[in-house]
Structures are given as C-alpha cells and as structure tokens.
Amino acid sequence: DQQVKQNSPSLSVQEGRISILNCDYTNSMFDYFLWYKKYPAEGPTFLISISSIKDKNEDGRFTVFLNKSAKHLSLHIVPSQPGDSAVYFCAASVANSGYALNFGKGTSLLVTP
Amino acid sequence: DGGITQSPKYLFRKEGQNVTLSCEQNLNHDAMYWYRQDPGQGLRLIYYSQIVNDFQKGDIAEGYSVSREKKESFPLTVTSAQKNPTAFYLCASSLQISNTGELFFGEGSRLTVL
Hints:
The complex is a heterodimer of chains A (113) and B (114).
Chain A (H helix, E strand, L loop, with lengths): L3 E2 L4 E5 L4 E7 L6 E7 L6 E7 L4 E4 L2 E6 L4 E6 L8 E8 L8 E2 L3 E6 L1
Parallel strand pairs in A: 2-11
Antiparallel strand pairs in A: 1-3, 3-8, 4-5, 4-9, 6-7, 7-8, 9-10, 9-11
Chain B lengths: L3 E4 L2 E4 L5 E7 L5 E8 L3 E8 L6 E2 L6 E3 L9 E3 L8 E8 L9 E2 L3 E5 L1
Parallel strand pairs in B: 2-11
Antiparallel strand pairs in B: 1-3, 3-8, 4-5, 4-9, 5-6, 7-8, 9-10, 9-11
C-alpha cells in the first residue's frame, strides 16, 4: 500500500520557468518530509526537507511547501535549469519512530533549453 | 573522503544462482538500508539495520538476506528464491534511524539475471 504518492510520472518544463513537483501522502502520522534527486545510474542525493511544524522551507532555487490539512507537499524549482533534469523522489517519515523512510515512485523532470 | 561504496556496479548472473552485493560505509552511521529500484516503482525497502547484529525486513524482503556483522558493512544476498531479481539496488545509511536525518546513498549496483 503506497503511503507516499507522486501521481505525475513525468514533467517537462522550459528553462527559466518554474517546475512544480507534487506529492501526496495518506499517513497522518508522517511529520517529516524530504525530497531526493536522482540521475540515471547514480544514487539519490538529498535535496531539501521540511518538518510538519513548518509550511515552507526554502534553499536557493528550491522551495518545499507543506499543506498538512490536504496531506500534500510540493517542490518548486525557480528558475529551472537543464541540469535539474532528473528523477525527484518524495519521502516521508514519522520522526523517531524507528521505521525507515517511505518513498514515492518518483517524477521524472525534463528541463528543455 | 567519507561515503558509501557499493560493489560491483554491474553484475550478471545466471538464473538460480545466489549473488551477494557489497555495501561499505565510512561515515560512522548506525543505520543502513537496502532499496530496490524498478522502472515506475520508485524505491522499495528490502531490509534495514539500526545497529550491528540487528536487522529488520522491509516491504519486499522475500528472496533476500542480509547480515550486519560490522557497523560499516551491510551485504545483501539475492537468493534463487527471488522471482524477479533483475533490478537496480541501492544501499544507504543514516546517522540513526531517527528519520529526521537524511539518507546517504551509494552509487548503486545493477544486477541482471540472464
């Protein structure tokens, strides 16, 4: 049973525009959320995270928004660059629960020149 | 440099053979994990370990086995009981399994069963 859902398998955006990647979760106990970026044939790398006590976290071109009532979070990339083309995974957890992260299926972002 | 090393990067095996994937970390992390990635399936947890000599099954543990005899090592054996072993395997570690810390991933091992 998928507790973290990324319903868009792929997204194409023009360079310079905003990329918005969405993630929904079903477990109301989740209180910590992370985004990972993955290039082909490489391991994922951590991008940005947010705790449930916040509704926004910003790091340079990347901003994550959390809407707890809707059980929804989104990753905004502004401006998008060709090097951002990768698969983005959303992950969620219950802090200090002793359980590992739950990952979504990923969204493949293509930023075109 | 600190990090996670997976080997081999590519591995070919005949059907019915067991194969062991290596994962070593020098980050002094307590927790280690094995994930499997298939196209369109995202990352699915196979096994994880919070401390030495202890490990727990993840969502898709059937057909796999692990050991954690040393803090820095967490090898994964893909047994002949695994029905569809061809996949990209990722090892990861974290300081603890508190989940507020990020996971550090290795480069992955691609296993192809012929």
